[in-house]
Design goal:
It contains two helices and 19 strands. The protein is mainly beta.
Length: 329
């Protein structure tokens, strides 16, 4: 809107009457303009609010889902561990997807080998049906047992029906358990058979373990007899750290009760009474001792021997064989 201001001029000079009239006109224009502005700005604000896009925005690459409840496509290797006793790797993969899962496969241990399938059907190693968790295991081959404490990499690939796929890797370096150690083996190096009585001796084997004696499950020996066969039908013969309280055997033929001969229970010294009858074989008995933990880890085997002389008046064993006898300690 324009306002016209009339000014009286004489010879290009503004008179006092004209100046006063101009000033009044300017004040009137300002009042009208301010009234119109007070109406314009509220209307502008209301218009902006009614036309503004109310959708939330985000800087993330993924679209904003809000409270839509939509499931995203994701995976996670939630478990990857090694059981030394069974020599197996165990692992679990948790998968979520808005679509059906077409395949879940894994590779472990051998680079370039075929991928193996996992399922969520409660079959094979999977525990529950349809829980979104794919469980699996892999047995370490005997040919690779020496590499048990190497760095192992588990690779898992998940693919849905739309050919979208995810891949994840996880590494594990199992700790090789410490073996027990045999410190000493004590027994008589030579015994002689008697015609009418038993000959007894107590064999003692002291063992240890870096994490304590509770780690040791058993101590045993294999006994190769002079005729080339193994005693106890080829099975290991158990020694005891029981303080002579567990092993208690009555031998009716000789009217004698035998114990392990162990002195103190739980001291790491395993014992066994060796009874020889008049009809037992004379010659050299070759022994192999070993200790084993609860995880099945065995000690370095140690060998020793015992010479059994025949009854008095009978032939003695070969002196060359006798030369191998002795107490290992």
């Amino acid at each position: 809107m324009r306002s016209r201001i009339k000014v009286k001029c004489y010879n290009n000079v503004i008179t006092a009457e004209g100046a006063k009239s101009a000033e009044l006109s300017m004040r009137k224009v300002k009042r009208n303009l301010m009234r119109r502005l007070r109406l314009f700005f509220p209307m502008l604000t209301i218009l902006m609010l009614t036309t503004c896009d109310q959708s939330p925005t985000t800087l993330d690459e993924e679209p904003y889902l809000g409270d839509s409840g939509e499931t995203t496509f994701s995976m996670e290797i939630s478990r990857f561990e090694f059981d030394y006793l069974s020599q197996q790797f165990f692992f679990s993969v948790e998968v979520t997807s808005p679509l059906e899962i077409a395949e879940v496969v894994y590779n472990l241990g051998i680079s370039g080998s075929l991928y193996l399938s996992l399922n969520d059907l409660g079959q094979d190693d999977d525990i529950l049906i349809g829980d979104g968790r794919y469980d699996g295991s892999w047995i370490l081959p005997d040919s690779m047992s020496t590499y048990v404490d190497s760095l192992w990499t588990l690779e898992v690939i998940v693919e849905d029906d739309a050919l979208n796929f995810l891949a994840e890797f996880k590494t594990l370096q199992p700790e090789r358990p410490e073996p027990p150690a045999i410190l000493s083996i004590t027994h008589m190096d030579t015994l002689q058979l008697q015609p009418n009585s038993l000959v007894l001796d107590t064999l003692r084997v002291q063992v240890t373990h870096s994490k304590g004696l509770d780690e040791i499950k058993s101590v045993s020996l294999m006994s190769l007899k002079p005729d080339g066969t193994y005693a106890n039908l080829g099975s290991p013969i158990t020694l005891w750290d029981d303080g002579s309280r567990i092993l208690n055997f009555y031998w009716g033929t000789w009217d004698i009760t035998l114990t392990s001969g162990d002195k103190v229970a739980g001291d790491g010294i395993y014992s066994l009474v060796l009874p020889l009858t008049p009809v037992d074989l004379s010659g050299t008995y070759y022994w192999t001792f070993s200790a084993k933990t609860w995880l099945g880890v065995e000690s370095i085997p140690l060998e020793d021997s015992l010479v059994v002389l025949p009854q008095p008046g009978l032939l003695k064993p070969n002196p060359k064989v006798v030369g191998r006898m002795g107490v290992f300690q």
